[in-house]
Write a structure and sequence with these properties.
CATH class of the largest domain: Mainly Alpha
Structural class: mainly alpha
Helix content: 40-55%
Order of helices and strands: HHHEHHEEHHHEHHEE
Number of domains: 2
Number of strands: 6
Radius of gyration: 23 Å
CATH topology of the largest domain: Arc Repressor Mutant, subunit A
Distance between the termini: 64 Å
Number of helices: 10
Shape: elongated
CATH architecture of the largest domain: Orthogonal Bundle
Largest sheet: 3 strands, antiparallel
Length: 261
């Protein structure tokens, strides 16, 4: 017997409830597996949904799009979130995510290059006492800390006690051509500065590869004050411009993958 009554669409909550009921006899079904059983598209069907207090520990979430989703209190510890979209998501109380709001020193690429070059040459040969190399550069040791912090963040040096030492990547940077240096810096930036890789992913997902500055400021302001958010975004944009990862258009107040015309 057939019915002419329209089928009422199920909500995502209803679908997941059914999945959980079906999975009662299975051993720890993954979220990805449950989504697949429900024929849900990870890149589309989780946008704007409520996933409050979900336990995503150890989950493989690559390819999921949680844009504008409510992820309050969600546990992401040890989850693989490479390339996951969180644009405009509510992340209050969420744990285990890369720190988009890490402090980024206001240090230019020229200062970074200068310290690396000095450290690589005699009499240091890649390893120096911080106050000694500061004197060599005619700087106070305290003024050198932001630069050394930036280098350590990018894994171009390691700090051991009061010493600063070039890493293999740092040596490659010093020995490289201008294009080599930009590529090394780009890899370091996108590998070790979560905010930079997040911005790049958002721009790659945009149809025209352009996004308003306000999108990223709003995300940062959920973790820090307005002034700190501005300073953090300004710092990562400066590094990204040197690395040719993305650029900022002052007039349009947008970030993009290509220089504004």
């Amino acid at each position: 017997m057939t019915s002419d009554q329209p089928i009422k669409p199920r909500s995502l909550g209803d679908t997941l409830d059914q999945l959980l009921e079906q999975a009662e006899n299975q051993d720890a079904p993954s979220f990805r597996a449950m989504a697949k059983v429900a024929d849900l598209d990870p890149s589309r069907d989780f946008i704007g949904v409520s996933l409050r207090d979900m336990d995503f520990r150890d989950e493989d979430l690559r390819g999921f799009n949680f844009s504008r989703a409510d992820l309050t209190g969600t546990d992401f510890r040890r989850a693989n979130v490479e390339g996951v979209a969180f644009h405009g998501a509510e992340l209050k109380g969420a744990i285990g995510l890369p720190d988009l709001a890490q402090t980024i020193p206001r240090v230019s690429a020229n200062l970074i290059s200068g310290l690396l070059e000095t450290l690589a040459t005699e009499p240091f040969s890649g390893n120096a006492d911080l106050p000694v190399i500061a004197d060599q550069l005619h700087m106070e040791a305290d003024d050198l800390f932001p630069i050394s912090h930036a280098l350590q963040m990018l894994h171009l040096v390691v700090m051991e006690g009061g010493d600063i030492k070039l890493t293999d990547t740092g040596k490659q940077f010093v020995e490289g051509t201008t294009s080599d240096r930009k590529e090394i810096f780009r890899r370091a930036l996108l590998s070790y500065v979560p905010l930079a890789s997040h911005i790049l992913h958002v721009l790659q997902e945009m149809a025209n590869h352009v996004a308003p500055k306000s999108l990223f400021l709003n995300e940062l302001e959920s973790h820090m004050g307005t002034d700190d958010a501005e300073e953090t975004l300004r710092s990562v944009v400066a590094w990204a411009r040197y690395a040719e990862a993305f650029v900022y258009d002052d007039e349009a107040e947008t970030l993009s993958l290509e220089n504004p015309t």
